[in-house]
Amino acid sequence: MLPPAIDPDASIPALLGRLVELLRAPVPAPDLVRDTVAVLAARVKEQPSVIEAGIENSWALDGDPLKGRLQARQVDTIRISVGAPGDELLALARALADDDAPLPSTTSVRVQLVPDPLPMAPSGAAPAILVAGEDGVVPRARPGDQLAKMIEGILVELDKAIRREQWHAVLHDGQAALRALPGLEEGIRRAYTIALKRFLSPQVRATLIEQAYRVVEEQPRTAEVLRACGLPAAEQMLEILRQHEAVGPRQFLVDALAGMPEAMPLLIPLLRSPRPHEARLAAEVMGRLGVPEVVRHLSFQASHPDEKVRLAVLEALGRYRDKAAVEPLRAALTHESPATRAQAGRALAARGSAAIAMPLLAALEVEKDGEAWESMLAALATIDAPEAAAALLGIALGKGKFLERKSTLEKRQLAVVRALAVAGTKRSRETLAKIAEAGSPGVADAAKAALGSKPA
Fold first, then answer.
1. What's the Cα-to-Cα distance from 7 to each of 15, 22, 104, 355, rounded to whole Å?
2. CA angle 241, 245, 249 (to 5 degrees)
């Protein structure tokens, strides 16, 4: 699925990134490509642009898909002069969209590749651990010092392990180099970062993933190494996950993606996929990214026609404290599906806000499905606020609108006691004490028993 139409006010890097995305999309879009080139060429007539890949900071998570392609193609800098022709811009975008095509460099559009990393002379065995100074802090290294030599040795061993297909050693060497890199001075760190990324090629990453299926205890280590490889690895992992309706043994790939906020541009179109399992996957990962910008995209899918997708989206929204997440969750409390209403209640409860108590109570008063009712009740009990406590006390004492449900009244009163006992907050214990004092015999006894199992 293609990304939405380009913003005509977007920056030159954003326009070029959009063009590369269009050219990499599985569905050709010649009209969109032509229009984007026209907008880009018009913008370049007004001002020049310098686009840097930022390879030395490629562990940073800035969500820029163009930088991901520049890093994958080992481009350091692109300098676009004022008046650069559209055909040269298009030729550059086509080359960036491809994994192997030569990168054109002209007078108007100059492409500077990253230099080859410093040559690594064979060295002795590298130490297994990094020894800290007397103050417990690892000193930042300068070119030629012990840390740089150690990383050089690790990369030499990594290269040997790849050539010998010793994949367990490859994984451990890759992680060791990755963890040591932040201690280097910026200039030398850049060279070794480039070298490490070149060693961890798509073929190597694929083999490490296959190994992780078989050796489960290596999955967290594999996820850590994959995260460090940036957007190219994110694309590779998503492609694997898209091929299967169930995540199954590939959960560690989901965990890896969940730690890569820079993958958000890849997930947004996947969330709109017509294939439900792809949309569910995107929702699960986006819920764990910790990037508030995803709330807007998740909100659009909160009423998705597929229930499993809908539930995944609501669960994802429940992970965000952003106020924009509240309205789609409140709206879901009145959805025709009981499972959706229950999930919305659980998601709202995770916020723990007193402002959510009254919408939950209103939904509780009209809820007819038993499972959804208990889910909303449990959600209300977790809110440590006077409004929630008063509402729950009213239900437990048989007051208010719940009085007319006489056939199930005691069952629901006992459900309140259980929910308060599980919540375990100070206010929930205070409410249990009031129920123990004023409730009907069976309900009061249950409240006393709950208080007896909780700290005072």
1. 8, 14, 27, 37
2. 60
Contact 333, 345 (CB under 8 A): yes
CA distance 247 to 268: 19
Give 93-108 pLDDT, tens digit per residue. 999 998 878 888 888 9
Query: Which tokens sit at 219?
Result: 């999955």
Which pair of tokens denotes residue 408? 């199930």
What average pLDDT does range 43-60 have in this prediction? 73
User: How do beta strands 49-52 and 109-113 pair?
Assistant: unpaired
Distance from the first to the final alpha carbon of the chain = 57
Judge whether 347 and 341 are in contact, CB under 8 Å.
no
Q: Are 106 and 138 in contact (CB under 8 A)?
A: no
d(CA 379, CA 360): 8
- CB-count exposure of residue 40 (10 Å: 0-12, 13-18, 19+): buried
390: left (phi over 0), alpha (psi -120 to 50) or beta: alpha
State how far the Cα of 266 lies from the Cα of 271, in Å rounded to an integer.
9
How much of the chain exceeds pLDDT 90, in percent? 46
Both tokens of residue 289? 């990214």
- Alpha-carbon span 104 to 106, nearest angstrom: 7
Four-CA torsion 120, 126, 129, 131, nearest 10 degrees: -80
Q: Which two tokens stand for residue 353?
A: 């806000």
Contact 298, 317 (CB under 8 A): yes
Contact, 319 vs 285, CB < 8 A? no
Six token digits for residue 26: 């599985």
Distances (CA, A) of 114 to 72, 107, 194, 326: 11, 19, 8, 46
Q: Are 266 and 293 in contact (CB under 8 A)?
A: no
Helix (H, G, I), strand (E, B) or coil at 144: coil
pLDDT bin (cut points 50, 70, 90) of residue 109 is very high
0.85 exceeded by pTM? no
Cα 119–Cα 123–Cα 129 angle in degrees, nearest 5: 110
* Residue 409: partners with Cβ closer than 8 Å, 6 or more residues away: 398, 402, 403
Complete edge-to-edge strand list for the sheet that includes strand 109-113: 49-52, 75-80, 109-113
Closest listed residue to residue 212, CA positions, set 238, 237, 230? 237
- Any residues with CB less than 8 A from the CB of 274 and at least 6 apart, and which? 1
Whether 56 contacts 186, CB under 8 Å = yes
